From TrEMBL:
This is FHA domain-containing protein. The keyword Membrane applies. SMART domains: FHA. Signal peptide: none annotated. InterPro entries: Cell_Proc_Reg/RNA_Proc (IPR050923), FHA_dom (IPR000253), SMAD_FHA_dom_sf (IPR008984). It comes from Acinetobacter bouvetii DSM 14964 = CIP 107468. The keyword Transmembrane helix applies. Residues 23-72 form the FHA domain. Coiled coil: none annotated. Keywords: Membrane, Transmembrane, Transmembrane helix. PROSITE patterns: FHA_DOMAIN. The chain crosses the membrane at residues 214-233.
Length: 234
């Protein structure tokens, strides 16, 4: 909610100020609402929004803050039509109108009836299912017309075990190898060729650091041996 102030005195007459958050009023340039009159303190007062309600608080100003011509000591709750005054500057308080969002929040929620009509998308889904089932039914009818035996009739000639498994069922043999085909001439798959993995930038840096460390240690060892040799033969 956004409250508004409308100036009704002096140079502020007709000026509208929107208040949608906590705001500081004063003569200082850092204030949210700057009033340049000399009678206004640098930090004169402050507006606060608490649960959508507007409050004004005096910040120990030199010339005081008034609500309906009554000087406030600390803070006061503002409402529609109040006159808030900073020194001699007066403003009328305008309460924000109810927004569309607030009206929707308070509107009752209407529940749909128990028996809802079939949505167009559901009708399309049913139609597509019927169309897909039609070819299957036509194919089955065609098989019956051609004299294909029923499922029960085909099972009568098959002996079943106690577990319900068919017996004496011939296992199909693999297809014969065509004449003139030499199986031994089939070449095996070529052996995979190893691919050398590229050395990454990080590995190169590590290798260089390792070589530098080894070189530095070698130099230190040589210097120590040279010093020991010099002390020994001195």
């Amino acid at each position: 909610m956004t409250w508004k102030l409308q100036g009704i005195t002096g140079e502020q007459t007709g000026r509208e100020i929107s208040i949608d958050r906590d705001m500081l009023i004063g003569r200082h340039q850092a204030a949210d609402i700057v009033l340049q009159q000399a009678e206004i303190s640098r930090k004169h007062a402050a507006f606060y929004l608490r649960d959508q309600a507007l409050w004004v608080q005096d910040l120990n100003s030199s010339n005081g803050t008034f609500v309906n011509d009554v000087k406030i000591e600390n803070e006061a709750l503002l409402k529609e039509g109040d006159i808030v005054q900073f020194a001699s500057l007066k403003f009328s308080v305008l309460q924000p109108a109810r927004t569309l969002d607030d009206a929707e929040e308070k509107a009752p929620v209407q529940t749909p009836p128990a028996e809802a009509a079939v949505q167009p998308s559901e009708a399309v889904a049913v139609s597509e299912t019927a169309q897909s089932a039609a070819p299957v039914t036509a194919a089955a009818q065609k098989m019956n017309d051609q004299g294909m035996p029923d499922l029960k009739e085909r099972h009568e000639g098959v002996q079943l075990s106690r577990d319900g498994m068919p017996q004496n069922v011939a296992v199909p043999k693999p297809a014969p190898i065509p004449e003139g085909v030499d199986i031994s001439a089939v070449k095996p798959d070529p052996a995979p060729i190893p691919v050398e993995q590229p050395v990454t930038q990080v590995e190169q840096e590590k290798e260089q650091q390792k070589n530098a460390s080894v070189g530095l240690m070698s130099v230190i060892v040589i210097i120590i041996l040279a010093v020991l040799a010099w002390l020994f033969f001195k």
